[in-house]
């Protein structure tokens, strides 16, 4: 029944009588429905280890997101700019992208849209998100470090008052001509709210105290180098979980390991490792000799991942600008690194642009598997099993060294065979569609193989050989693909994640020159159950599927059988590569065109060649298109084969004999490559009827011509319409012509729901146009960014393969890297599970242990009696998620209090405040410090609750204030003696706009400072209330412990 409906539907679309009706603008809405795979021209990577989302940015501004369970999404902003930096705010659903124009885009991953664009005034040279908070360090080319905060409610970036200028962060080692651009600005591990390490391009290393707002350590710098060439910093990374080591890569190929002090608090001295204590500030702890310095290969990126608290793996990536010298190495950093270097050189054929360690989870075993993902310069992704790298490094110096870790290239899940031809078929909706979709949704995570799978069984396509053929009964859409090795595969395209159903391998043929020639053309007649394929060697294979009793609602159920038993195959060999195939089921004839200009008509019953005719061409000799047509004129009916040449000429042949109906074909004035030939309009009985119309007369009208069958020829630069009657007679008269704006390389006919006809065009620049027929007006257009297109001079099936269903569903195969599903009509939604597979972000996901690249050990806390009480009461099963949330909120609160205040005034404000302070003999309101600048210990501090200790602290504070007042009075007296003419100073202040020491200005400044202190007092009140709540909580826990202890004694 459903096959009959499909046949009737196709017949109406092909033979719609009553004239040609074009598509309406309201019917057309071209859009990218789903992007599967890796976009071309990829340039950088970012990874969220909690959400397991990998982001891939491209040079044209497109960002691809790859999540768990094959979920994928494509982000496209209006500004098509490449990315400089890209980083997640982990587990927040926010992706920050810095473009080449120094614009910071805030992406909402769940909504897949840009919520804010922050325009930065200077060139951004470093960009680091402080994880466990909403703060960002932005370093620029002038040496400034700016602090930005993400307003999570409005999802916009706000510039904070706190700043780190180069005049303060560089210390006394600032050189006038030195390059102070910030290359690295990252918080020190285990002290994220206290210190940040800043590394400048000139080699200067500065450890900045956030609370103290001053430099704690200055090391490195070009002043130490005695060579003529300065060492410019290119990359850096922490190399210790405690933040005591940092590795720096230079433009000269040097790699230095520097010791960084770890402070207990801002008043104590640095605590260093016993081996690090011998390192001077201007002498690196270790110089790694990995061979980069010999060829002066810049170290473009360094990444360190912890293995345990004492060792880790350092991933070193270096390549020159030309790409002639490149190397990617993995080394072990531990206590013995100073004596020997254990390394692995990965055999990459091209430079690496980015790397990430991603965690993959097997659906069967639920075991975590770490994979090293490398982005190569060509835009392809390369995978290595990280556990295999670790095993190699551990055993590489043994007597029997292990084999090198195996490399896996990320490709579409079609094994090692690239797609060279494709056909898409959309089935009619059925009553069981909803129930089938629900069943398929339950099995969705386990049904499809992962794009990043390093399992060889899934990579070599063995899943197709063991596919369940019962899947045809549930298939709503069918995709037939031909491959470079001659294989033909059937895919369930009901969901954009293609599922393999049936594979037909190329069989060896003695009469054929090659048994594995690439498939170049496909034609599948669903109603007659016949599939015809042609390959590069000129071989035609005719597959006739058995007509089984229909037991399913699907139109593709006839394919459901044991492989090899449900079809028969017939082979025919022709001259040249097969370019076009057409079938006439009424006469059982098959027409085939080759690239050498041969047209062959074959009887499908017996597979005998009826005739073979070569049609000469001018520049292009191939047969681009073939179409059978029954033409009636003046009461007679003729069976005609219309031949569309690759050089845009059209010729009509008699179907049975192959004789030309005219002496010369219809040609264009200038030879251009043709892309499409199609006959428009046919009568309801399937016979094209041409009335005798004299187009030279003035009575000729477009309405009358609209009822005539027309021949559409679309070439690379123009669209032409000819009357079929003129083509049969060889008359070179164009009914309508439209020049194209750009170079077109693909064209196809599409049909609307009301049998209206339109034309889809794809240009080499990535633009897609939908035009109406017959006026050829543009109804809508869309830009498909992030795609690679073949040139018109490239060989057939070189890069991209297009296939379009008659309903306007377009499938683009971009080599072996990506699949694009595009819908043209506004009312069509034919794919299942789109909402599920495009949702890469999972809200409320708790972080798992070991998700960070630096496995931070638990920060040491003073465990008093209450700590033991909690441990005994709660047990050892502590929830890591709650602990992480507590740490996150603590770091965020500490940074919020610090970054919300101004630490350095502008130059004019500094001069103004200094003059006022010098003339103020009273206690300055700035002397009252309401901020607790000491390091805050996490957890409950019982000393705060001790009144005696509080009294001692207040007494000490009063003493400090008294000393400060006395010092200011003494300094005031000394300076008062030196000042002779105060009025002259006041005049100079008024001239340049500075405040004088009059009473009104002093009162205003005092009022301003008083408002600030009121705000600070409110914050202290909030902290006090939080401490009281914490004390009540511990009191209740103590009571519970006492009751449990008494209960245990009584038992």
Automatic annotation (TrEMBL):
Source superkingdom: Eukaryota
SUPFAM superfamilies with a match to the protein in the record: WD40 repeat-like
The keyword Oxidoreductase belongs to this UniProt entry's keyword annotation: no
GO biological process, one term: exocytosis
Transmembrane domains' residue ranges: none
Keyword Transferase attributed: no
Keywords: Exocytosis
Family: Belongs to the WD repeat L(2)GL family.
Descriptive protein name: Lethal giant larvae (Lgl)-like C-terminal domain-containing protein
Organism whose genome encodes this protein: Musa acuminata subsp. malaccensis (Wild banana)
């Amino acid at each position: 029944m459903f096959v009959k409906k499909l046949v009737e539907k196709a017949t109406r679309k092909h033979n719609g009588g009553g004239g040609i009706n074009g598509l309406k603008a309201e019917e057309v809405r071209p859009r990218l429905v789903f992007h599967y795979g890796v976009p071309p021209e990829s340039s950088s990577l970012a990874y969220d280890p909690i959400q397991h989302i990998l982001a891939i940015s491209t040079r044209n501004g497109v960002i691809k997101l790859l999540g768990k369970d094959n979920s994928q999404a494509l982000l496209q902003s209006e500004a098509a700019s490449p990315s400089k930096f890209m980083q997640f705010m982990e587990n927040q659903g926010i992706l920050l992208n810095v473009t080449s124009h120094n614009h910071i885009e805030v992406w909402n991953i769940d909504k897949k849209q840009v919520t804010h664009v922050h325009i930065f005034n200077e060139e951004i040279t470093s960009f680091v998100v402080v994880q466990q908070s909403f703060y960002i360090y932005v370093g620029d080319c002038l040496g400034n470090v700016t602090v930005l905060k993400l307003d999570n409610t409005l999802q916009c970036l706000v510039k904070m008052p706190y700043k780190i200028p180069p005049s303060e962060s560089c210390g006394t080692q600032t050189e006038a001509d030195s390059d102070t651009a910030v290359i690295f600005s990252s918080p020190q591990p285990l002290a994220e709210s206290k210190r940040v390490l800043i590394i400048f391009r000139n080699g200067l290393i500065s450890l900045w105290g956030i609370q103290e707002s001053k430099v704690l350590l200055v090391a490195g710098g070009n002043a130490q180098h005695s060579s003529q060439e300065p060492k410019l910093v290119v990359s850096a990374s922490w190399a210790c979980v405690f933040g005591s080591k940092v590795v720096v890569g230079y433009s000269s190929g040097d790699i230095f390991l520097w010791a960084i002090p770890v402070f207990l608090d801002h008043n104590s001295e640095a605590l260093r490792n016993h081996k690090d204590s011998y390192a001077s500030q201007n002498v690196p702890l270790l110089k790694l000799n990995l061979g980069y310095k010999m060829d002066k290969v810049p170290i473009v990126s360094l990444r360190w991942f912890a293995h345990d608290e004492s060792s880790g793996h350092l991933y070193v990536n270096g390549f020159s600008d030309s790409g002639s010298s490149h190397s990617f190495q993995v080394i072990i950093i531990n206590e013995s690194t100073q004596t020997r270097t254990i390394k692995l050189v990965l055999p990459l054929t091209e430079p690496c642009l980015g790397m990430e360690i991603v965690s993959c989870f097997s659906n069967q075993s639920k075991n975590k598997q770490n994979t090293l993902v490398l982005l190569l310069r060509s835009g392809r992704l390369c995978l290595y099993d990280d556990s295999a790298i670790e095993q190699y490094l551990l055993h590489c110096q043994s007597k029997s060294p292990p084999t090198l870790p195996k490399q896996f290239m990320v490709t579409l899940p079609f094994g090692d065979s690239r797609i060279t031809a494709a056909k898409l078929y959309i089935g009619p909706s059925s009553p069981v569609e909803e129930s089938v979709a629900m069943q398929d949704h339950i099995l969705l995570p386990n049904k499809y193989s992962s794009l990043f799978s390093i399992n060889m069984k899934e990579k070599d396509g063995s899943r197709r050989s063991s596919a369940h053929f019962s899947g045809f009964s549930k298939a709503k859409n069918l995709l037939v693909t031909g491959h470079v090795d001659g294989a033909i595969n059937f895919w369930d395209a009901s969901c954009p994640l293609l599922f393999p159903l049936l594979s037909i391998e190329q069989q060896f043929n003695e009469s054929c020159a090659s048994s594995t020639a690439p498939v170049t053309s496909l034609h599948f007649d669903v109603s007659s159950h016949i599939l015809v394929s042609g390959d590069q060697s000129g071989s035609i294979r005719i597959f006739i599927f058995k007509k089984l009793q229909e037991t399913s609602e699907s139109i593709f159920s006839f394919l459901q059988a044991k492989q090899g038993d449900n079809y028969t195959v017939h082979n025919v060999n022709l001259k040249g590569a097969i370019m076009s195939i057409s079938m006439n089921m009424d006469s059982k004839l098959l027409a085939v065109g080759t690239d050498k200009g041969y047209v062959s008509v074959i009887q499908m019953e017996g597979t005998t060649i009826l005739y073979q005719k070569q049609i000469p061409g001018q520049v292009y000799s191939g047969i681009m298109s073939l179409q059978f047509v029954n033409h009636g004129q003046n009461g007679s009916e003729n069976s005609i084969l219309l031949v569309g040449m690759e050089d845009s000429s059209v010729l009509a042949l008699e179907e049975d004999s192959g004789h030309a109906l005219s002496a010369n074909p219809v040609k264009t004035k200038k030879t251009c490559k043709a892309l499409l030939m199609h006959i428009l309009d046919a009568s309801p009985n399937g016979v094209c009827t041409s009335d005798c119309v004299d187009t030279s007369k003035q009575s000729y009208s477009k309405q009358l011509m609209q009822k005539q069958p027309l021949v559409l020829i679309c070439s690379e630069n123009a669209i032409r319409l000819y009357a079929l009657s003129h083509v049969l007679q060889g008359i070179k008269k164009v009914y309508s012509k439209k020049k194209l704006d750009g170079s077109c390389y693909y064209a196809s006919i599409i049909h609307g729901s009301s049998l209206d006809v339109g034309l889809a065009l794809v240009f080499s620049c990535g633009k897609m146009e939908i035009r109406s027929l017959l006026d050829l007006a543009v109804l809508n257009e869309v830009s498909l960014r992030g795609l690679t297109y073949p040139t018109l001079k490239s060989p057939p099936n070189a890069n991209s393969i297009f296939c379009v269903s008659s309903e306007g569903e377009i499938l683009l195969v971009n080599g072996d890297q990506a699949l694009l599903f595009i819908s043209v009509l506004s009312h069509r939604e034919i794919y299942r599970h789109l909402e599920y597979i495009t949702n890469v972000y999972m809200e409320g996901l708790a972080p798992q242990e070991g998700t960070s690249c630096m496995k931070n050990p638990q920060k040491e806390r003073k465990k008093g009696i209450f700590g033991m009480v909690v441990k005994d009461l709660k047990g050892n099963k502590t929830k890591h998620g709650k602990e992480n949330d507590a740490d996150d909120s603590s770091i965020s609160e500490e940074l919020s209090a610090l970054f919300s205040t101004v630490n350095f005034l502008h130059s004019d404000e500094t001069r103004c405040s200094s003059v006022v302070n010098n003339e103020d003999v009273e206690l300055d309101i700035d002397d009252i410090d309401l901020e607790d600048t000491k390091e805050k210990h996490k957890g409950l501090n019982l000393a705060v609750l001790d009144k005696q200790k509080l009294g001692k602290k207040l007494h000490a504070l009063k003493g400090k204030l008294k000393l400060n007042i006395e010092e200011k009075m003494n300094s005031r007296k000394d300076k008062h003696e030196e000042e002779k003419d105060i009025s002259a100073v006041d005049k100079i202040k008024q001239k340049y706009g500075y405040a004088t020491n009059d009473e009104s200005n002093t009162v205003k400044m005092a009022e301003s400072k008083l408002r600030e202190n009121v705000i600070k007092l409110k914050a202290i009140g909030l902290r006090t209330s939080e401490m009281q709540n914490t004390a009540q909580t511990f009191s209740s826990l103590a009571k519970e412990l006492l009751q449990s202890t008494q209960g245990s004694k009584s038992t």
